[in-house]
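Quick one before lunch.
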Amino acid sequence: MPRLNMVEGLNLALDQAMAQDDRVLVMGEDVARTGGVFRVTAGLLDKYGEERVIDTPLSEAGIVGAAIGMALYGLLPVVEIQFDTFVYPAFEQIVVHAARYAWRTRGEVPASIVIRIPFGGGVRAPELHSDSPEALFVHVPGLKVVCPTTPALARDLLLAAISHPDPVIFMEPKRIYRTGRDEVPEKAPLLLPEADGEATQLLSRARVARPGEDLVMFSYGSTVVSCCEAAQKLQDERGVSARVVDLVSLYPLDVESITGAASECGRAIVVHEAPRTAGLGAEVSSLIHERVMLDLEAPVGRVTGFDVPFPQFANEDDYIPSIDRIAAGAVKVLDF
Amino acid sequence: MPRLNMVEGLNLALDQAMAQDDRVLVMGEDVARTGGVFRVTAGLLDKYGEERVIDTPLSEAGIVGAAIGMALYGLLPVVEIQFDTFVYPAFEQIVVHAARYAWRTRGEVPASIVIRIPFGGGVRAPELHSDSPEALFVHVPGLKVVCPTTPALARDLLLAAISHPDPVIFMEPKRIYRTGRDEVPEKAPLLLPEADGEATQLLSRARVARPGEDLVMFSYGSTVVSCCEAAQKLQDERGVSARVVDLVSLYPLDVESITGAASECGRAIVVHEAPRTAGLGAEVSSLIHERVMLDLEAPVGRVTGFDVPFPQFANEDDYIPSIDRIAAGAVKVLDF
Amino acid sequence: MEEPLRIIGDGVGQPDWAPPVELTEKDLVAMYRSLVILRTFDERAVSLQRQGRLGTYALYWGEEATHAGPLHACNDSDWLFPTYRQNSIGVLRGVKAATILAWWRGYGGAHGFYQVREHRVAPICVPIATHLPHAVGLSWAAKKRGDGICALTWLGDGATSEGDFHEAMNFASVYKTPTVLFCVNNQWAISTHVSRQTATPTLVEKCVAYAMPGLRVDGFDVLACWKATKEALDRARAGDGPTFIEAVCYRIGAHGTADDPRLYRDEAESERYRALEPLGRYRAYLQRLGALDDDQASDIHDEAKALIAAAVAEMEALDFPGVEILFDYVYASGRPDPLTEGLDELRSIERRPEVKPLGPQPGASPGDADPLPEGA
Amino acid sequence: MEEPLRIIGDGVGQPDWAPPVELTEKDLVAMYRSLVILRTFDERAVSLQRQGRLGTYALYWGEEATHAGPLHACNDSDWLFPTYRQNSIGVLRGVKAATILAWWRGYGGAHGFYQVREHRVAPICVPIATHLPHAVGLSWAAKKRGDGICALTWLGDGATSEGDFHEAMNFASVYKTPTVLFCVNNQWAISTHVSRQTATPTLVEKCVAYAMPGLRVDGFDVLACWKATKEALDRARAGDGPTFIEAVCYRIGAHGTADDPRLYRDEAESERYRALEPLGRYRAYLQRLGALDDDQASDIHDEAKALIAAAVAEMEALDFPGVEILFDYVYASGRPDPLTEGLDELRSIERRPEVKPLGPQPGASPGDADPLPEGA
Ligand SMILES: Cc1ncc(C[n+]2csc(CCOP(=O)(O)OP(=O)(O)O)c2C)c(N)n1
Ligand SMILES: Cc1ncc(C[n+]2csc(CCOP(=O)(O)OP(=O)(O)O)c2C)c(N)n1
Ligand SMILES: [Mg+2]
Ligand SMILES: [Mg+2]
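Model of the magnesium ion complex:
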């Protein structure tokens, strides 16, 4: 089994999907000749040619809009947005069209596209290369939103997203693109194109990233890694056993796993990098209180980015929830 | 004192602002010659001329982008988006530029613009004329977001928004544009341009729309009216005294008023028309639980739009939180 | 500025030209029939709206040639991408007129939305210019597959100001997609005259920015619209890429049933254009040609009336949609939990009586009692 | 395709033309000085980046003529709207070079952002084409006020594909705003060649779509860039509206310090263009004219070196920004509660040591250890 990092895991998924189903194509700015600024699509041009691996004009609405049209014809486009913040020119196409095509065609034609968005900070990038816009997509009905945290999961989720009939916003936590390696079984978990049910399952389930029972931390993306480290710190310093639940699916949320874990542990925090107000943390927190408040020993805490623009990168470590901030947030809940 | 409906209140605010300060101008699709599809800008062209009341090309990003440039030069543009959903082509300009101009110029040049958005359903309009996108703007740092519910408040808030240095997303609940009349004192509450502090205050305070003590309903926009009716129903049918708090300011939230009311009443629901997941209801609910959970007799409930596209209008009354649904949501919390 | 291409004369000063040779007499009559169906639909929809049986409706009275002409130039396997203005174009492709009427009545689901792949007609697009990239993407996909299928899409004069118009034009020209962008320059975008929309005297010159061929035709002339589209489609099918067509006409009616054009234009002007409307003009032309006699014509009108009357009856017989309609089809993969919970919540509430699909009442203009918007 | 306007010959085959008559010898030398300052800044920034003292940096080596030429054509009261590529243009307007270096070092607030109104230089714009409507809006406002002030904005070849480009061009032409849109066609948008960006052989022909005058010049020729911009500004100030200028050159360097052009183009080609770079070419021209002697030139170079050395020292002496920087200036009206609470939270946490503003290390290319993005 090859040991891959997340970039390679994603690349493998694209390669396997394209090999299995000639309806799959990849399109975006600089995805073909360079293999994308993060090299996720490296090598695909040579293997599948210009008709299926397409360097587009600099035109996000055009890219997503054209992908919707292709999907209407029956192709399965996987679109790359170069960086988080550059998705906004395509926002209208995503929320007004991709999200509503199934609804507007009485279920006949979902916009079966995958929109890959490398997101978040931590890579010392200039302004507007570090945002976390996922909550905006979560709030818009008609989209699925997922976020992998390990190379193996990245491969499996991307294949599932391509197999899945509904449009999927595929958030890629760029900070951990290359930080860890996994054994990734070569065999793809899903065979295109008849695996819808299975894909839907895979795309809607949270996973336990670290077991524990005194408190649970809910997170997704690169802060899952920080949560695991914060949990270790709590273990070392206070003997607290903290569970980390990786949400994986941001819409729909795996409510049962979330409320189950909160009930079992009695104490919980939600951690994300995006700004706090009206972020996913608010949704997770409300869900837990609404459903299992009586099982809680303390209100659910939130450790998140601040309600400010992502800072210039010299200060990004002040912005991104650090291990210390996460631990402090957990302690507040533990000491309630 | 003239008795005005909300459209007239808004019109009066624009008229007063333009009369007082020649930096103020109005711009948008069909705002000049017709006075806007809702007639909010009626009569202004005749009074202030083409240079200050501008029918633009059909081009939302161009409109907002040009307004930002005008603000940079020192003008105070008030922009109209024709209907809620048509704000999306301008989304990038709003969240990446308007929201960040102060920050990017170390406080020197906030994008002092007001973006008026008639929003929400209830007027039997075709697809994409009934959305409630406010949570998206609330989640984006750098914007103020407000929503008036009465004609007098509409006049005062709009004047405050124009006086205010930061960009303001001004959500206008079109369903109640013409449903009620207020006495609106002719004297404007704020004198442009030196009233920043006062404007900021006005733009950040919730108000009690109906007193009560057994339960509090938080809402904004047209559902405030429905909440008041639901409160009456609860009074009549169950002898319950329900308070209605109109949030008015969606960002920042008036947290003190919110948690204060929740503590006093011990039971609360949040009501809005936008989809539930990651909507403002989640934020209000989390804030309350985080801060005053021990004062609560029951978890905070949510009565909201569903996680679906706003329906074709024949079914819009099924979608918009009805008096019955609100009352049922309150009863659930009361009977917890 | 060159005169737009015209084939049909006015029977007085302007000469007739022969119909395009590719068209048989049967074709010519078929095109007449299409115009009549469109007109009948439109007039009926307006009156239904006045009676409060439809919501706000975007009429197209006088623009039928820009719908039927291009459509008849297409193969049946080509795709159409209409806006709200070409809302009933699907009827000419077999979509039930009742479905489109139901859309304007505010019905969703299977009542108000049609099957797009079956008819190769994309859903009615409401937000301006945003469907153009879809047409480009679809035809690009067809080209990749070598299927010889083209996309025909409509847009208004106002739409040329949107960013999506530009991005679609650029993609189409860069990838030489088999796309026809048919721009109906009716000179108005609600209250905004085209002269305030663009600095160019014509819209067709916009295609220079994309090295795209452009054609300019009389939008009241169904044969001119046909001919330009045919030429464009032939080029597209030959692998030579997209074409932009500007069809010059005039929005004779209001923007929509809630719009009052007296607020912003001299209605005498629109009266003058009324004389040029495409149906009567084409009929006179066919009669001068001897291709249509009165009996045939009145049969066609009767047939159209019957068709639309049946559609109205069918629409009115539709069950008022249940609450499930809110949650159906949002996801092709089934309802996620929040939708199931929403449906349960809604089912637990006693439902209010059926909502009347109210548009503004007869003759109403926006005023206090009427919070209805103007836009379509 | 017509040859772009050129004034400076190559000293071999191509002839020199006389400098524009409006320019005195002093002006010519001042322009040389600007080129030298820009070049010195750029080269120093690249080396600082290699040493890990700046983050990813978007170099502009070889494009200085497209910065300095237009700038010198402006009045001091005109506004400039740069992209990341013209990042140091502000230095020629009195912005501290240290501030711009600090921006690339990842500093915000007063360290990394300059006062825009003081210098009439808009903030460096990162998202492509999105600043163009701002330039149009600002100059439109100036026109409304009758202030005789123009806006000059830069964009790349890639930027012409974005919707915002189109909407800005349209607004400028409809309202005849005093705007100059200066497009640096360096033929590459990261790895995408301009021939894959547009179907038109040139970019200047895009302005036909807006009835806007267009000029095409040699982007390696500072005087040609000056002249075209001057002509455009004169027209704008006379009330005749905007102009689009295409300056044809080549992106000799990488897109940014994290980019590896060998992945997508033949670097022999960029080597060939290196010979055309504007600084040496202009210097030789001035020397052929007898307008610059070696002493003068070396003084200018020394001055620039000293200026930038001082700036580097100033930048390195800046205090590492405290946590307040996250919350400062977000709202001009003061910090809303969530920001105050955030600051309190952050202050309660022990702070980790200063973050090194790491860019990729010397010679690093994207690889396992280096998750750095390529884009600027
Ligand atoms: C993105 C967007 N902005 C605004 C509107 C509101 N609106 C509906 S129709 C219309 C005018 C369209 O004019 P034009 O493109 O000329 O088409 P026509 O109505 O004349 O057929 C406007 C502004 C919309 N539907 N979509
Ligand atoms: C809206 C947006 N999309 C994508 C990017 C990423 N990006 C940065 S520079 C660049 C290429 C720009 O090319 P061009 O306009 O030719 O300018 P140049 O870099 O050559 O100066 C891209 C795609 C961006 N900054 N903004
Ligand atoms: Mg029109
Ligand atoms: Mg370039």
